[in-house]
Amino acid sequence: MTTQPRKILVTCALPYANGAIHLGHMLEHIQADIWVRFQRMRGNKIHFVCADDAHGTPIMLNADKLGITPEELIAKAKADHVRDFAGFNISFDNYHSTHSEENKQLTAEIYNKLKANGFIKSKVISQLFDPEKNMFLPDRFVKGTCPKCKAEDQYGDNCEVCASTYSPMDLINPRSAVSGATPVVKESEHFFFDLPAFEGMLKNGHVLAHFNLKLRTKCKNGLRVVYNNGIFHVMHLISVLKFPAQKINSSMFG
């Protein structure tokens, strides 16, 4: 009996476009490459793809520190990553970047379809704002005194001394980890994906049927947290597009 070749899509965790490839990256990609080469030798059709994760506040801040644009930092990181992977003969079929026209168009399409069907919700949230850098501060970009144990120089999400978790707004004497300035409180509109609307489908046994027991349990526990919190933040989706969410429409992307 002739067995039809399998079609297999393989990828690895995307390296962040903010620094060099480290041993952890290389270990994972070499292991994947060994498996990919084995499958090719068996006659299976493999699509081995990966990309740089090119979005996030650390990239913007590092580029500012280096005196270059985020786009220049992203381009340099990709060139370095491609060179390093090629030096270890990693056999990608395609190595790309999340900072691409294809990703922008696909993200816009996903967002617009979700919004058109009523699955994007908005909510005004109070956040700490750096008046010197003119930017909102994620929790890891705020430092101050722990509101529980009073340990100093702790991040805005948890204390490394007493292990307490809290909101950046709870910090005593908060300061921006970016500029050192005292942040002010400002409101901003955030956009959320209405994940609980899909609770029935996601809890359906067929969706998780191909996962092993440990992974099924982890997914169910994670979904339970999301259901309890109500909605799922989609600001990463918006950051990929680099446009204010309320102004996104398909005409912007041709």
From TrEMBL:
Membrane-spanning ranges: none
PROSITE patterns (UniProt xref): AA_TRNA_LIGASE_I
Domain Methionyl/Leucyl tRNA synthetase: 8-204
GO biological process, one term: methionyl-tRNA aminoacylation
Catalysis: reaction(s): tRNA(Met) + L-methionine + ATP = L-methionyl-tRNA(Met) + AMP + diphosphate
Top EC class of this enzyme: ligase
EC number: 6.1.1.10
GO MF entries: ATP binding; methionine-tRNA ligase activity
Subcellular location field: Cytoplasm
GO cellular component: cytosol
Keywords on record: Aminoacyl-tRNA synthetase, ATP-binding, Cytoplasm, Ligase, Nucleotide-binding, Protein biosynthesis, Zinc
Family membership noted in the UniProt record: Belongs to the class-I aminoacyl-tRNA synthetase family. MetG type 1 subfamily.
PANTHER family in UniProt: METHIONINE--TRNA LIGASE, METHIONINE--TRNA LIGASE, CYTOPLASMIC
Primary role: Is required not only for elongation of protein synthesis but also for the initiation of all mRNA translation through initiator tRNA(fMet) aminoacylation.
Protein name according to UniProt: Methionine--tRNA ligase
Organism: Haemophilus influenzae R3021
Organismal lineage: Bacteria, Pseudomonadati, Pseudomonadota, Gammaproteobacteria, Pasteurellales
